[in-house]
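> call design_seq(struct)
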């Protein structure tokens, strides 16, 4: 059974270099439960393979995944191949253009090579969001959408800025 550091210590390490943690109380609760049960958190960050190289902006999230790894949790490097094919709306001032399957596969391969310069390959799960999204029906997408409110969406700085600038915000995954 893993021996996780005290929750306050974990939070201090996770907060290092962060501007904010949205819903910190929820993270604290999850860390407390993880420490009680000895079960590591499964922490994911998604990266749409929009280019062949990871860039400085990616390293911020990858480094945060590394912090969770350092604390004994499982890091999931999620490649957004499904969202890459439809043009994911998040993380940008505008919606990304859809990519071809060939572009996605080529870029995903280079991501897998590069990410292990920061993350421990033995403690990292590489996954693709098409594994579950490609099986979704229209009903599944609607049920997923109903779990999130407009106010939750606008908590994100990127969407809030687009709203303030009267730029389009599309509901896509």
């Amino acid at each position: 059974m893993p021996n996780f550091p005290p929750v306050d210590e974990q939070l201090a390490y996770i907060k290092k270099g962060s501007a904010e943690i949205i819903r910190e109380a929820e993270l604290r609760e999850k860390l407390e439960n993880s420490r009680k049960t000895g079960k590591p958190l499964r922490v994911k960050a998604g990266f749409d393979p929009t280019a062949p190289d990871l860039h400085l902006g990616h390293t911020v999230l990858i480094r945060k995944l590394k912090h969770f790894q350092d604390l004994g949790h499982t890091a999931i490097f999620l490649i957004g191949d499904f969202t890459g094919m439809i043009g994911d709306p998040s993380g940008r001032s505008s919606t990304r253009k859809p990519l071809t399957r060939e572009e996605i596969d080529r870029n995903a391969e280079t991501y897998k090579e590069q990410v292990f310069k920061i993350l421990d390959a033995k403690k990292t799960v590489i996954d693709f969001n098409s594994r579950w999204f490609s099986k979704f029906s229209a009903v599944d997408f609607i049920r997923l959408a109903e779990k999130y409110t407009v106010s939750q969406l606008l908590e994100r700085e990127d969407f809030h800025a687009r709203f303030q600038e009267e730029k389009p915000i599309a509901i896509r995954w």
